[in-house]
Every structure is written in structure tokens, then in C-alpha cells.
Amino acid sequence: MFKRSLLFSTFVLMLSFSAAYAAPEQIPVPNTVTMLDLGAKSCVPCKMMAPVLEKVGKYYEGKASILFVDVWENPNMKSEYGIQAIPTQIFYDKKGNERERHTGFLDEASIKTKIDALLAE
């Protein structure tokens, strides 16, 4: 019973995660500061990033776009963005230029510092 419940909870978490971080067709989002997180729903550091991305996404709603793409579900994205390890975060300015890239877990304060700097330009 516990095993079944745990499996169901994991499945619900994965569904919620994918629904909350579905990426738009255009990356970066035009005329918007954009943070793209490339990872996978079943990668441990990526799972640790999920609540951070959700919180940051709500904080910057209407000001910046926070996107997540699962590179295991979208394998062409790995080569398109030159991903060597996940999670990888890419920060874009309002003109769509890549300004910074980070690989690994990135905490909320660090993300906000990077986005705030791009918004201030």
C-alpha cells in the first residue's frame, strides 16, 4: 500500500512539474528577460530546482519569463543549446541575447540577482 501511494505521489508531482513549466514555442520569449532551465523531471538536482523555479516564476510574473524544458523528453534541445550537464540555466536579456549560463543547482537568491541585473539594463 505504501509503495503504491508513493508511486502515485511521484506521478502527481511529475505531472504538476511538467504542467507548471511547459515552455513556449519561442525561446527566449521576445522582448522579455528570460531564464531557461534545461533539465529533466527525474534528475535529482533538477527536482531540487523545481520549487525554486516555481517560486521565482511567481515572483517575476509579468516581468520576466522562467521556463523549464525536459531535455530527456526533448533530446534535440541538448544539442541545440550545447548542454553538457543538467540542470543548466541560460539567462537572456530583453533583446534575446544569451548573457549568462550556469550548470548545476542554482539557488533562489542567485537567480534573482541575475534576473534583476538583466531587468535593470
Automatic annotation (TrEMBL):
Cellular component GO terms held in the UniProt record: cytosol
Transmembrane parts of this sequence: none
Keyword Membrane carried by entry: no
Signal peptide, first to last residue: 1-22
UniProt record, GO biological process: cell redox homeostasis
Thioredoxin domain location: 8-120
GO terms assigned for molecular function: protein-disulfide reductase activity
Record SUPFAM superfamilies: Thioredoxin-like
PANTHER family, per the entry: GEO12009P1
Protein name (Swiss-Prot/TrEMBL): Thioredoxin 1
